[in-house]
Amino acid sequence: MPLFRTLRDFALGALLAVSSVFLAFPVAAQTDEPQLPKFTAAFPASSLVPEADAYGPMREDIPVMPLLRGDETIGYAFLNSDIVSSIGYSSRPIDILAAISPDAVLMGASMRRQSEPLLQSGTRAQDAHTLVQSYAGRDLKPEAMPGGSGIDRPYISGISTSVRVIEDSLVRAGLKVAFTLGLGGLEMPARPEGTYDRVNPDVAAPETWQEMLDAGLLQQLTLTVGAVNEAFAAPYQPPAAAQYPLKRPPEDLVIDLYTTVISVPGMSSRLLREVEQRDLATMIEEGGSAIMIGARGPYSWRGTAYRYDGQYDRIELIQDGKTIRFNSRDYMSIYQFHVEGAPILDEIGLLAIPAFAEFDPTKPWRLQLLVQRNMGAIDRAYLTYGLGFALPSNFVIPAEMTLEQYEAEQERAAKVAMRNDIWTARAPEIAGLAAMLAVLTAAFFFQGYLTRSARLTFWFRIAYLSTTLVFLGWYSNAQLSIVNLMALLSSLRTGFEWDTFTMEPMTFILWFSVAAALIFWGRGAYCGWLCPFGALQELTNRLAKLLRIPQVTLPWGLNERLWAVKYIIFLGLFGVTLTSLDTAIRYAEVEPFRTAITLKFMRAWPFTLYLSVLLFIGLFVERFYCRYLCPLGAALAIPARIRMFDWIKRYRDCGNPCQICSNECMVQSIHPTGEINPNECLSCLHCQVQYQSKTVCPVVIKQVKRRDKIASGVHAVGAAMERTQHANHPHAVKVAE
Amino acid sequence: MNTRPKQGKAPMNAVNRRRFLTISAAAGVFGTGALLGHHATSQPLYRWEGVALGTSASITLAHPEAKRIVARARAEIARLEGVFSLYRADSALSRLNATGKLDQPPFELLECLSLCGTVNAATDGLFDPSVQPVWRLYADSYDLGRAPDAEALATAQALVGWGGVHADAARVSFARAGMALTLNGVAQGFIADRVAALLASEGLHNILVDTGEMRALGGHPRGGAWPISLDVDGQILPKALPLRDLALASSAPRGTTFDDARTQGHILNPATGAPSAQPWRLVSVTAPQAALADALSSAFCLMTREEIATALTAFPSARLVYLG
What we know:
heterodimer; A: alpha+beta; 31 helices; B: alpha+beta; 7-stranded antiparallel sheet; 9 helices
C-alpha cells in the first residue's frame, strides 16, 4: 500500500508536471510548415512517377513541386496532408505523396506515412499501399463537377474509415492543386460572394459636384504653370528642361483633372444620362470596371500618340503593384456632366478596365499622369504626378469572411460530411454499442439484484464478455488504445479539434462512456467489461480453468510491486509522446491489441509471438496483462479515485479475518486488510456476489443464523439486526484509503 | 546597403559583396531628440527588413499601422522591381535589353532614363547605363575564372554610348543591336524616392526608406535626424551622419568585385571599359533625391576629387559627404 501510494502520487505529480510543460510549449513552435520537402527528399521522383527524374523547387502559393524530366515539367507533386485534412482513424494524418499531370490526371500516388491501427499488419498495409497506388490514372476533372465523379469508393472490409479518408483527401487535395495551377482546364471556382469586399449598388452619390469632391468620390489634381516649371527646374531634371519653361502666368492651369470609378452604380446614375449609362454598361465586360477621367486645361491627358497606336501614353492606373494602361478602344467620350456645380471640362473619357486586369474598385488605387516637356527637337523631360483614389467605405459592402475563413469552413464542412457518412454507415454497430452500454449501466445500477444470483451473474458476465470480444472487438474493431490518449495529448499541443476525434464513431462513443464511467465507477467499467482484449484474456482463462489448468496466485507483496510496471510503461510512453508521437506510436506496440483484436492474429510472427506469450501467461495468472503491463489501464487507473460513488459493498469484518473475497478476486485487488484498491478493481462484481452469498460470506451466514434463531424463538429483535447490518454497510467503511 | 552588384546579374561567386552602411543605435538619439521635442512619439519603432533589387532593404517607422503601411510600400517596391530588375526576365528593362526596344515604357523608366541623361551629361559620360554589355562580359568571363579577352572587350565596348539610347513616351529603343542598359547604379535610389513619395502622399512622415540607398522622409520618430554611420571597409566611422528629409547614397568600387582576388571592382568606366582606376574605397553623396545621389555616387567612383568638384557644380543641392 505505501509503495503503491507513493507510486500513485508520483504518477499524478509527474502527470501534472508533464502536462504543464506541455501546455507551456508555445503554440507557435508547432508550425504549419509544408511537409512536402521532407517527404520528397526521402522519395525519389522516379519512384512516384517513373518518367520523372527530379523535383523542382516548391511553389510559394501552394505547397507543390514541379515534377521534372530534364528541364521539362511533366507534372506536379504534392502531399495530401499539406493541402487538406487527412486525419484518419488514428487521429493522425495519412500522408500520401501524389503527382498530378497538366491535364489533372493523377500520375502516381504513394502512401508515405500512416498510423492507422488497422493498416499496420503486413497484408493490410500492403492492401492500403496497393489501393493508394491504384489512384494513378484517376482523372480528377469529373470530380470538379457538382456531385463528383460518382465513382464508387473502393472498399476494403473493415477499414472503411481509413479508405474513406484516403479517397477524400487525395481527391480534394488533387483538385485544389488543379484549381490553383489551372490544370486540365480547371479553374478556381468563382470566389464566393461574401469573401470579398463588394461595391454596394444601392448607395447613391450626393447630388452636387462639390459634395462628391468632399466625400472623396471625385479626386482632383490641379497643376499650375508655376508648379510644373518649378518641378522641371529640379536638380535631377535635365538642365535643358529649365530652359524651356511654360511662358504663361504661374497661376495659369496646365491641367485640372478629376477621376472616379464610374462603374460604381451610385456614381454613374448621378453623373451620366440614361443613354450614357446604357452605353457604359455595354462597354464593361462581366467582372470589369470603368474609371472616369475628365480634365480641363491645355495639357491633354490623352496626348496625341493614341491617334497612331491607340495607346494612351500619359496615364496609367496603379493598384497593389499592378499597372493598368488604357487603349482608345476602351474609351467612351462624354460631353458634359449634368450635375449641379460640375465644371465645364474639355475632355471627359470613360475608360473600361477588363476583368483580367483584376482591378478591384473597393481597394485604393492611383492614377499616374505623365507630364512631358519637349526640349528642342527630340529631347524630352518627364514628370509623373500621382492622384490617389479610395472608394468611401459607405459604398463598400465588406466581406463577411476572408477567403481563408471560407476555405476553412468548406474544409470543416467536408470533414463533417465525411464523418456523417461514416457514422451513417456504422449505424448498426453504433446501435449495438449503445445497447451494450445501456445493459452495462443497468447492471451496475441494479447490481444488488443481479448479484443475488451467483449463477446469473456468472453467465451474464460470460455472455457480456463474449459480446465485447466478438462484436466490439473482432467485428467493430472498437478497441481503445493508449494511442488514442497519446493523440489527444499531442493534439493539445498542435490544436485540439473535435472533428479529429469524432471521425471514428465507436472509438469516440467508447471514450465518452469511459469518461462518464470514470466519474461514476472508476476504470472497472471499461477494463472489466468493455475491453475486447481484457475479455479475450478472461474468457481464455475461463477455458483454462475449465480444463483444470492450475492457477498461480502471486504472493501479495510481488503482486503489489508488479502493479507499478504498467505505470512506468505509461509514463514512458507519455514522455516519448512529448518528443515524437510517431515514435511513441511505435512503442505503443507494447499493447497486443492490434495483433489480437484489430488484425485478428494475422500479423508478422514477432507480434503474434508476443501476443501468444501474454495469453499463455494469462492462462495461469488471470488477466496478467491488465494487472501489470497495460499502459491504458494505468492511464485510466490514475483518475480512478475521482469517482463519485463506491458501489462495491463491504462489511466491517471483510479482511479481518475473512479473506474469502480477497483470495477469490481475479485480479488480486483486495488487500489482505480488506480494502479494495480502486486502481486495480475491474468491477467484475464477484465480491458482490459473495457479499450476498448465504453460503460463502461468514457475515451473511452469521446473520442468517441469528435471524433464524430470532425467527425460531425469541421475539423480534429484527430491528436491532437491521441496524447491525446498516452499521456494517459500506458507506461507513468503504474501500479504505 | 550599397552591396549591390552595381551592374545587373545575380550574385555569383565572382562577385564578392559586403555591407558598409549602418543605422546607429536609435537609443543614442532618443535622449536628445526627445528632449528637443521633435515630433517625439511613443509608438514603438517598427522595422521591416527584406530584399529589393537583390539587395537588403528596410523601412523604419513608428506608426500604429506600420505593418499595413509597409505592405503598401512593399507592393510598390515589387511593382518597381518589375520595371528595373535585371534579375527578372519579365521586367520592363529586361524586355528592353532582350529586344532592343520597348513600347509604352513605364513612366518610371522614362523618368529614370531622363535623370540618367542629366547625370551622364554632367559627368562627361562617366555615368552611363549603357555600359551593361561590358559588365556582362566581365561577369561571364570571371564566372569562368578568367579576364575577358581583348577582342570581346572591344566588341562590347563598341556598344556603349548614351547617345544610342532613345526614349520617349511611346517607345524606348537602342541605336545598335546588342546594346543593353543597367540601371543598377540608380534604380535603388529611384525606388527609394518613389516609395518615399507614395508614403508622403498619404501624409506620413518620419520614415526611413532604405532600398540599398537611403531616403529619409522627415527625421527619426523619436526626434532628431536619422543617424547613419558610414562603414569604410569594415570600419565604422565614429561620427554618425544626420539624415533628415535627405537622401544618402554610397558606392564602394571594390566593395563588390568580379574576381576572387578582389582587384576587379564592379564599377566600370564606360570610356575605357575597365574597372575604376581611382583609389576610392567609399564614395558617399547626399541629395534631396536618392536617385540623384545614387547616380552621382556611382559616377564619382570613376572620378578624381577635382573632377567630382566640377561635376557637383551642376547639382547645387548635392553634397559629397565622404570620399576616401
